[in-house]
Structure formats: C-alpha cells, structure tokens
Amino acid sequence: MAAITISQLTKVFANGVRALRDVDLTIADGEFFALLGPSGCGKTTLLRTIAGLEAPNAGRIVIGERDVTRMPPGPRKVAMVFQDYALYPHMDVTDNIAYPLKIQRVGRAARRQRALETGSHLGLAGMMDRRPAQLSGGQQQRVALARAVASHPQVFLFDEPLSNLDARLRMEARTFLKRLHADLRITTVYVTHDQSEALALADRMAVMDGGVIRQVGSPVEVFQRPANLFVASFIGSTPMNLLDARVDGGLVRVGPDAASIPESARGLVQEGEPVVLGVRPEYAELHPQRVAESIAARVVITEHLGTAFLVDLETAAGPVQVVVSEESPPDTGDDVFVLTNPQRSLLYRRDTGELIGPASSLAGLATAAAR
Amino acid sequence: MAEGTLPAAPPAADTRWLVRAVIARVQLYVFIALVAAFFALPMAWLVLSPFDAHPTLVAGLAHPTLANFADMFRNPAVRGSLLNSVLLALGTMVVVVATAALAAYALSRVHVPGHNVILYVLLLFSSVVTGSAAMVPIFLLAYDLHIINTITGVVLVLAGGLLPAAIFILKDFMDSTPASYEESARVFGAGPFQILRDIVVPLVRPGLAVIAVWSMVTVWGNFLTPFILLRDPSLTPASVQIYSFYSAGGTANLRLISTFGLLYTLPVVVMYLVVQNRYGFRFYGGIKH
Ligand SMILES: Nc1ncnc2c1ncn2[C@@H]1O[C@H](COP(=O)(O)OP(=O)(O)OP(=O)(O)O)[C@@H](O)[C@H]1O
Ligand SMILES: [Mg+2]
Predict the structure, then answer these.
(1) Which of A52, A87, A240, B253 has the smallest number of CB atoms closer than 10 Å to its CB?
(2) Are A224 and A370 in contact (CB under 8 A)?
(3) CATH fold of the domain at A4-224
C-alpha cells in the first residue's frame, strides 16, 4: 500500500526521442489510476520508469515513503502485468504464479500453497498444472494477474492488459479487475489506449500526449470538461465538435450564425476574442426551424448507433456531428438548425487551446456521469 | 511423379512418348541405386564386419562371432582411448556450453557497438584455429603455457575453436526469447544469474542441446589437435588410436579396425537420435509453446 509521487520526470532515449517531458503526477494510496493517450505518447515508458526497467534522465519517483529513482526494480515492490503477459512457457500455472515467491525465497510447500490460493481466488483452480500454451487468452491474463497478486506488491502496474482479449472477454476481465481492486485496494497504474476502459475502471486518470500530461482528473471531469483542445478531441466515443468562433456581444459567432456563450465561460472572454466552441454530439439538438442562436446545417449522412442516430452535418463553419434520439432521425439533404446547450458546451482560447473557465465540472453536472 | 503428372500426348506419338518416359525412369532408378549403394555399402561393412571372425574388404557375414568385441575389450589401449575420448568430448562440451551460454547472453542483451563484426571475425578465425595452418603456433603456445600433453590443453584448444560458432548459434536463440520474460522476472526481483538459470536457459534448451551434441561429435572425430598436443600414449583418444591398428608389416588389422570403428561410431548416432527426438535439430531460435 503506497502512494506514488512523480516529479519532473524526464526520459530521453538513446536515439534522442523525448518520451517523457517534466512529468509531475501524484497517485494516491489505493487509487486506480489510468494513463490514457494515443499511441507513442509515452504511457509505456512512464510505467516502465516507475517499475525501474527504464532509468529516467531527470526527476524523482517516490513510492510510499521511499525515493526509488535509482533503485533496481526488485526492491521497489511493484508488480507489472505486461501486454503479452510474459508467462513463462516452460513452467506450469502453479510455477508461474509462484515464481515471485521463489525469488523471495519462500519455501516450496508454502509457495505452492499460496499459488493455489491465489489461483483459486482468480478462478484458476482447475488448471494449475497446465502450461500457458494450454490456456485461453482470458485464462492467461488471469494467471498473469495471479502472479502479480501473489508477489504482494505495493503497486500494480498494468500495460494494456486487456488488449489481447476479444470484446466480450474484455468486458468480463474489466469487471474482474474492478472487483480485484475493490478487494485488495492496491495502488494501481493502468495504461490503456481504450478510453472506455479508463472511464469504466479508474478513480482518476491522466491524458498524455507527446510525453506530456495534458490533463489529470476523475473520468467525469475529463469527459465533461476536457482541459484543452487535445483532450477535447481525444476523449469521447464520438469526437467533440470543435468550431472556430469569435466572441460577439453575448454570443459566439460561428460563421454567419451564432450560438450562446457556454455558461462556464461567461465573463471570462473579451469582445472579439478568437475562440473554439466545443460541443459534444450528445449535447446538441437538431431543430427543423431556426430557433434563437442556432447554427444552420444540412444533413449529409445518418448512422444508426443502436439506441440513437449519429447525424453528420455540413455547416458554414465546417462539419458537425449530432446524436439524436431514435424517434426523429432527419433525412439526408434536410436543412436543420443545431442548438447548443450552454450548460454543456465549452469554450477554448484559440491561441493556447486551453479551456476557458474552471477546470473541474460545476456542481450538478458531475452527477450526469459519462459512465 | 505418377502417371497423372505426365502431360497428355497426341495419340499417334503416344507409344513412342511412353517408351521414352519409361527409359528415362529406369535410368533414374539405376542412378539412384548406384548412389545409394555407394553410401550404403560402407555402412553395411561397418555394421557387419565386427561380427565376422575373418573380415575382408567385402561386406558380409561369413563367420558370425562376438569374439572380436571380447578381444578388443581385452586390449587396454582400446579401453583407455575410448575413455580418453569421452573425457575430451565431455570436457570440451562443458566448457563450450557454459562459456557460450554466458557470452551469447551478454552479447544478446548488452549492445556492444560492432558486436556483430566481432562475432563474424571470430567465426572466421575459428576455422583457422583448429585447422592445420595454426598447429605450429598452437603447439608453441600450449608448450609455453605448460598444457602440452594434458587433456586440459586439448580441451581448451578445441573449445576455443568451437566457441565462436557456438556463441553465434546460441545468440540467435537468446535473441528470440521475448524481453518481457526477463523484465517481468526483474520486476519480481530476480538477479541476472537467477534469470539466466530460471528463464533463459530453459527457453534456449534446444539450442544448448544442439551445441552440446555438436561439440561432442566434433571433438570425438577430431584427429589433428590431440595427435599433435598429446605425447603420452595413455592419453590418446580413440580418433588417434584407430591409426595404430596396423600390424608391424603395415597391413590393417581388419578385425580390430571394424570392431573399433563400430564402437567409435555408435555414441555419435545415439546422441543424434536423442537430440532429434527431444528437440529436433534447430540452428535458429524461437519459442515453441
Ligand atoms: N527503447 C526505446 N528506444 C528508443 N525509443 C523508444 C524506446 N521505447 C519507446 N521509444 C519511443 O518513445 C516514445 C514513447 O513510447 P511508448 O512505448 O512509451 O508509447 P506508448 O504510449 O506506450 O504507445 P502505445 O500505445 O503504442 O503502446 C515513442 O515515440 C517510442 O518510439
Ligand atoms: Mg505502450
């Protein structure tokens, strides 16, 4: 059980790639923390640096009370689950789970006993003497988890542990991980590039890009109020609409049309300031007639999402997507008007790309969670 | 190669075509039979002659007997030479496998600049080391190191010649074991030797087996190095001993040579079969689940 404090962490690889730039991060004791970001942004590197498999060029890592920056991996007392699980093909499940204990010099009988306990806890009781090659992907993943659990670490480090599973198994494993974390309450850092995983599992999450952390917050905060244009365009099952706009009177002008200023940005912008209006497709409405402060659009295509329709629109300011309910899908070629919800829409400064207004969600909004 | 594969010919030319095909086929079989006989006859001689009381240069079993074996084992030089061969082969094998495993592991994991060049140059020179060209300097070196006329000296020289190729083959096996296996062990706190023993060695075991058998077989058959470095007849290995089975007049003692030849060949065949059965001969890495 330990908190992780990372300060000013920088990692430059021998080939000159700056994989981490001045990363500051605090992960609380017992927290389930997700690291999210596009491919190549440095998630794995951050995780491996915490584990001690990579030495940072600058900065400090503290786990619990101990500065582990220059410590080899073993004494850091972390357990890592690799994307390929790294199960030893020449050992059976028992020996795989017991291997950390063997290194810790636990006696053979005690080791087998503990491997069996952990294995049964994770639903592996019937397959303790199989080799990894004789297990399904989901079972292999549980063996890797069991091995991590059996080593009694202070911290779990997961590098995309579910990415090798098919969609259904992934859902099961997700629930499983959540339960395991609820049981053990071990500080967990979880790397993923699947945002639904991060949203579903994490207490808090960080969004990374190019070796930099772009936002840290609860999944609700990150989903509701992305702190900058990068996070805004990255988070969400359908990407947020980002429209170039300009502050004009009490409105934001979008091409020839206008929308109301998002509530959280009121009083914080200057007349004529160039901004970007952010509207989630889920938080906009379509109207057949012009209503006050709406944006004229034409329907290009309609996609069925199962429980709703995703409507692709063309406006004078560029393409816009809106999710509408099942009953009222418009036809292709219809002229419609997009009404934004000022409580849910966001405003970004066009020069810096930063969110205008408070970073965390306003009271009341948070309850309408993205989960 | 059955009739089905013969292209259809026009009916008029049918018979002529068929005759030509049959003749071609007959010629092929005759040729194969000759080649097979060329290789099989010595084998037959090797297997049959030891059991013949009066072996000649003709393969056959005119007077079946086991006396040849009894005679041979009564000859102390024969027993000693087989034992010496075993010592040489095992000793060299242990040195080669242990050293090559460590070296290949290091070369595979630590990136020394230009390590491939080093390896290729070593590989090139290794054939020189055990070849006849280097025998004089090697003799002088062994003499100055006071390892002349010792089993140790021969083991070291032979191991030196085998090591580059052994490292080369093993490095490939080591390269193809995923780094995540070792990294996960490291995160659990394993040290380098623990990782080598628990993870790497079991994973490259087929490679180690190939290296072990290959070095034993090579040493078993090597004549020149022990012939030059060993003076004491009690140290002579089988590969050198076999040249002493001539009568004073210079004629070959076929009873002794054939019997000894069979015994001398058997370990190689057995080792090959064992490794082939357990691992299959592979000279490249890769995890077989
Ligand atoms: N050993 C290495 N040597 C040199 N560059 C590396 C090394 N490992 C990673 N990099 C580079 O560092 C950057 C970050 O890599 P990293 O593996 O941390 O990305 P990631 O966020 O985990 O991506 P993914 O989602 O694809 O796994 C990338 O540009 C990558 O090419
Ligand atoms: Mg990665």
Answers:
(1) B253
(2) yes
(3) Rossmann fold (3.40.50)
